Amino acid sequence: MQELRRVAKNILFIDLETVSGKESFDLLDERMQEQWQRKAANIRNDEHVSAFDLFYRRAAIYSEFGKIICIGVGALYWVSSDEQPRFKVKTIAGDDEKAILLEFKELIEKYPQNQLVLCAHNGKEFDFPFLCRRMLVNGITLPDSLKLSGKKPWEILHQDTLDMWRFGDYKSFAQLDLLAALFGIPSSKSDISGEDVTRVYYAEKDLDRIRRYCKEDVVVLAQLWLRLNQYDTIKPELIVRAE
C-alpha cells in the first residue's frame, strides 16, 4: 500500500464533458458555417444526415466547434488513521467555458508542475489536446503540465488508461465502459452516455445531471487505473463525491 501511496501522490484523474459550441448550426456565423460544411464532408455519415443535423450530433468532439461545459477531477488520498486508500471527486461546470478552464488551471497549478500526472481515458487523443486548444481559444496561458511543445517524451507525465490497455497495439480501441465491464467495475452509463450530453445540456438544460455523470466517469477511470496497475479498487464507502 505504501507503493500505491507513493505512485498516486500527484495523480489527478480527469474527464471532460463537451457539447457543440452553439446549440445549432444556424447560430454559427457565416465563416464558421462554411468551415463546418468542409469538416462535415470528411465525417463518416452512414445515415446521410445534413451538415446542419450532423453539427448537433458530432460538433462536440471537435475542439474547433465544441466547448467544455464540465471537467471532472478526482484524486486518491489517505487519512492518517487508516491505510485504506480513499477517493474524492468533484466537478467544475457551467455555461462559461473560460471560467471553467481558469478554475481548472488554478486547481492543477497547486501541484508541482514537474510532478503532476494527469490521467484520462483516451486522454492523449482527446482530453489533453481538447483542453489545450480550448484554453488557447479562450486566451488562457497553458499551465506547465499541459505544455507539450519542446518536451522530450519522458518529460510529459500524462497517463492514458486506453494507452495502458493497448500495450502498444494501436489498432485497438476500447471504450471506458467496455473495460469497466471487463474488470467488473460498476458502469457510469446507468443514466446517460456521452452521446446524450449535448441534448441534456441544450434541450433539457440539466447541467446537474451531466455533473453527476461526469463524476461517475472519473470514479470508473480511477478504478480502472488501479486494476491496470494491479491494485485493489476503492471500496464504495470510501468514495467521496463532492458538490
TrEMBL record:
Gene3D superfamilies, per database record: Ribonuclease H-like superfamily/Ribonuclease H
Keyword field: Exonuclease, Hydrolase, Nuclease
Record domain Predicted 3'-5' exonuclease PolB-like: where: 75-231
MF (Gene Ontology): exonuclease activity; nucleic acid binding
Cleavable signal peptide: none
The UniProt record lists the keyword Hydrolase: yes
Pfam family, one: DNA_pol_B_exo2
Name of the protein: 3'-5' exonuclease
Organism of provenance: Runella rosea
